[in-house]
Amino acid sequence: MIINPSIKTLTQGKMNRYMLAIATAKCAHLVTEEFLEQKTDAETRISSKEIEGPVFNYIDSEIRDNNAVEVAVRRIAADKYNIYDENHKLIR
Length: 92
Prior knowledge:
Blueprint: H1 7-11, H2 17-47, H3 61-65, H4 68-77
């Protein structure tokens, strides 16, 4: 599977591939947590008859319909996550 943008674009010469891989994994974990929170909230609201229909109708389509890593890469490219180096200096 090829995910755009490219590694070169994402690293911008400011970090290496390892740093990007770690940042992407951490961001993908956040995406997964976001999915689980929305799913749990929807299940709770459906069981209390507050809303009706399938659970997945109430989960953000970006995280419902895509792989967590793919969403993380897109969000990193869009600067929705800050990435810091080991000295806590902002990289991206």
